[in-house]
């Protein structure tokens, strides 16, 4: 695992439908893994790139998902409108909450992102017009230029895969850019970044908005994958799970976040078939993973 | 530089009555001094005299309770630390502060980045940016660290880290340098090398130097200010300071001033 190549996992996902993983159950599971991987990827960018450990990241996912639901309720189902709206809504939410949260650091940042996440959760629960506590079921999946392409499971599978791969390459390029270099410097040694003339706030806020946008994209896919959006998708437990996927994969490694999410989904699924009390096994497994894989599944490899 | 020692125009940096209290303790108690282009102005004083706190106030990492900092004729007392760096006031730290996970060149290139185009560029790889790499290499060369360019900064020797920290200050293209014990922890050979580097920098910058190594101070400084309990005890040429009775009294039992 030391030099785990993220391309391998993406290639496996690309080949999976032709290797017999083409049933409804497999497609659902893979879609879930890819959506969570996309969300974990955006959180991994924040944690590993900017040193911002958020415990409210599921809210970004939720804003993207609810953008799809709300537009659906008003009869807007065109992807060319819905997808940018979901991404922009999540980025805007990140920008507004980040503007306040990023003024704090460490434990305070964790607590304030948690608070914003819970605010999003309770707001979603109170949206009676969009299902309230019970959630909202979409009339249908989003259309692309009038075609109901996403109803095709294979097409949807490859859309998720393309967006996941694209987001990974995009975030990797950003980390290597001028902006990314400043961002990594503020994470490693904020005092030194300031001594170079960089005030960290603007760079961290921009990174927060970028991560929000990618999570919004994941939210768009989540809503379409399940054709359902509910407050539970925003709950802080989900934020904790995303953070765990990042840590499991290896903090500081973008492909690690993808791997962490995939491992998480598979482990959860396998254990659930063994016993209904699978969380009793899952919990200790997570603890063991942290103890014995201090650099995560991706090892020391830095993507 | 032929003009050195003569009073040329306005001082570049003026500290005017700086005060800082922590609780009842006056750490900086009305300090005024100035710094001219092409000059090394050393600040010495016993431990706890308030030297580092003074540097913090000049660089903008600590806000003074009263007094002003004037830089290039402009009142910068309320500017943030990074804003002062952009204005041309760079600093180094007593405890080495570098980006250990970056290579030496990446460190220096990033320090130069604020002067060479926007930092809100998201796609092109910074490592292949020739402008930044050229500026970074120039800064490394100025401190004699060019052959270590590709080495991870955390793996450099202690003396090389101190050199790198100087390069990072230079790469921001400053007019004045605030150096907080640049020789701290350096061995004999490293000290000699750092002193030679500082001497070579003198003509192009105004340097405010806090240093414990008295040999270095008296070898480098054009002027020396002695702080004691947050106050300026004396300011003058190294010779005048050596001869000053009050300074000798303050240092009795503390450190020997070499003659």
UniProtKB/TrEMBL annotation, chain A:
<feature type="transmembrane region" description="Helical">
    <location>
        <begin position="242"/>
        <end position="266"/>
    </location>
</feature>
<feature type="transmembrane region" description="Helical">
    <location>
        <begin position="32"/>
        <end position="53"/>
    </location>
</feature>
<dbReference type="InterPro" id="IPR043428">
    <property type="entry name" value="LivM-like"/>
</dbReference>
<feature type="transmembrane region" description="Helical">
    <location>
        <begin position="155"/>
        <end position="175"/>
    </location>
</feature>
<keyword id="KW-1133">Transmembrane helix</keyword>
<dbReference type="InterPro" id="IPR001851">
    <property type="entry name" value="ABC_transp_permease"/>
</dbReference>
<feature type="transmembrane region" description="Helical">
    <location>
        <begin position="82"/>
        <end position="102"/>
    </location>
</feature>
<feature type="transmembrane region" description="Helical">
    <location>
        <begin position="109"/>
        <end position="130"/>
    </location>
</feature>
<feature type="transmembrane region" description="Helical">
    <location>
        <begin position="201"/>
        <end position="222"/>
    </location>
</feature>
<keyword id="KW-0472">Membrane</keyword>
<feature type="transmembrane region" description="Helical">
    <location>
        <begin position="278"/>
        <end position="297"/>
    </location>
</feature>
<protein>
    <submittedName>
        <fullName>Branched-chain amino acid ABC transporter permease</fullName>
    </submittedName>
</protein>
<dbReference type="Pfam" id="PF02653">
    <property type="entry name" value="BPD_transp_2"/>
</dbReference>
<keyword id="KW-0812">Transmembrane</keyword>
<keyword id="KW-1003">Cell membrane</keyword>
Automatic annotation (TrEMBL), chain B:
<dbReference type="InterPro" id="IPR027417">
    <property type="entry name" value="P-loop_NTPase"/>
</dbReference>
<dbReference type="InterPro" id="IPR003439">
    <property type="entry name" value="ABC_transporter-like_ATP-bd"/>
</dbReference>
<dbReference type="InterPro" id="IPR003593">
    <property type="entry name" value="AAA+_ATPase"/>
</dbReference>
<keyword id="KW-0547">Nucleotide-binding</keyword>
<dbReference type="InterPro" id="IPR032823">
    <property type="entry name" value="BCA_ABC_TP_C"/>
</dbReference>
<dbReference type="Pfam" id="PF12399">
    <property type="entry name" value="BCA_ABC_TP_C"/>
</dbReference>
<dbReference type="InterPro" id="IPR051120">
    <property type="entry name" value="ABC_AA/LPS_Transport"/>
</dbReference>
<protein>
    <submittedName>
        <fullName>ABC transporter ATP-binding protein</fullName>
    </submittedName>
</protein>
<dbReference type="GO" id="GO:0005524">
    <property type="term" value="F:ATP binding"/>
</dbReference>
<keyword id="KW-0813">Transport</keyword>
<feature type="domain" description="ABC transporter">
    <location>
        <begin position="13"/>
        <end position="254"/>
    </location>
</feature>
<keyword id="KW-0067">ATP-binding</keyword>
<dbReference type="Pfam" id="PF00005">
    <property type="entry name" value="ABC_tran"/>
</dbReference>
């Amino acid at each position: 695992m030391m030099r785990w190549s993220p391309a391998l996992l993406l290639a496996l996902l690309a080949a999976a439908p032709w290797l017999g993983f083409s049933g409804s159950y497999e497609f659902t599971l893979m879609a879930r893994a890819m959506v969570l991987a996309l969300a974990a990827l955006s959180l991994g960018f924040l944690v590993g790139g900017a040193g911002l450990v958020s415990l409210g990241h599921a809210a970004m996912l939720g804003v993207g998902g609810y953008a799809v639901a709300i537009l659906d309720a008003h009869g807007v189902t065109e992807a060319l409108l819905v997808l940018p709206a979901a991404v922009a809504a999540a980025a805007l939410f990140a920008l507004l909450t980040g503007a306040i949260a990023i003024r704090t650091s460490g434990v305070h940042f964790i607590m304030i992102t948690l608070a914003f996440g819970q605010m999003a959760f309770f707001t979603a629960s109170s949206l009676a017009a969009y299902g309230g506590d019970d959630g909202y079921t979409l009339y249908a999946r989003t259309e692309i230029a009038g075609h109901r392409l996403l109803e095709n499971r294979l097409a949807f599978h490859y859309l998720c895969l393309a967006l996941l791969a694209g987001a990974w390459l995009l975030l990797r390029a950003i980390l290597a850019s001028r902006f990314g270099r400043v961002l990594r410097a503020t994470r490693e040694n904020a005092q030194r970044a300031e001594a170079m003339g960089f005030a960290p706030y603007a760079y961290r806020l921009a990174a927060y908005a970028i991560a929000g946008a990618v999570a919004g994209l994941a939210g768009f896919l989540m809503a379409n994958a399940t054709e359902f959006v509910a407050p539970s998708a925003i709950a802080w437990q989900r934020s904790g799970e995303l953070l765990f996927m990042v840590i499991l994969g290896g903090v500081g490694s973008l492909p690690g976040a993808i791997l962490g999410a995939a491992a998480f989904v598979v482990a959860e699924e396998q254990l659930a078939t063994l016993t209904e009390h699978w969380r009793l096994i899952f919990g200790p497994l997570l603890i063991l993973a942290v103890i014995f894989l201090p650099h995560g599944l991706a090892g020391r490899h830095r993507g | 530089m032929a003009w050195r020692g003569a009073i040329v125009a306005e001082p570049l940096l003026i500290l005017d009555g700086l005060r800082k209290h922590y609780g009842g303790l006056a750490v900086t108690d009305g300090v005024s001094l100035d710094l001219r282009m092409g000059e090394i102005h050393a600040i010495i004083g016993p431990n706890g005299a308030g030297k580092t706190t003074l540097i913090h106030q000049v660089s903008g990492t600590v806000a003074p309770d009263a007094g002003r900092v004037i830089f290039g004729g402009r009142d910068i007392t309320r500017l943030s630390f990074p804003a002062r760096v952009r204005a041309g006031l760079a600093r180094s730290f007593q405890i080495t502060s570098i980006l250990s996970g970056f290579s030496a060149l990446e460190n220096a290139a990033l320090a130069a980045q604020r002067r060479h185009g926007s930092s809100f560029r998201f796609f092109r790889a910074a490592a292949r940016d020739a402008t930044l790499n050229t500026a970074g290499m120039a800064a490394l060369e100025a401190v004699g660290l060019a052959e270590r360019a590709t080495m991870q900064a955390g793996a450099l020797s202690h003396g090389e880290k101190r050199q790198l920290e100087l390069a990072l200050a230079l790469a921001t293209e400053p007019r004045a340098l605030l150096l907080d014990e640049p020789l701290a922890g350096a061995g004999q050979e490293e000290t000699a090398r750092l002193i030679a580097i500082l001497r070579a920098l003198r003509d192009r910058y105004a340097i405010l130097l806090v240093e414990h190594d008295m040999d270095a101070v008296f070898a480098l400084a054009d002027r020396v200010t002695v702080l004691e309990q947050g106050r300026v005890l004396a300011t003058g040429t190294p010779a005048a300071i050596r001869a000053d009775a009050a300074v000798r009294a303050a240092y009795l039992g503390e450190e020997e001033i070499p003659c």
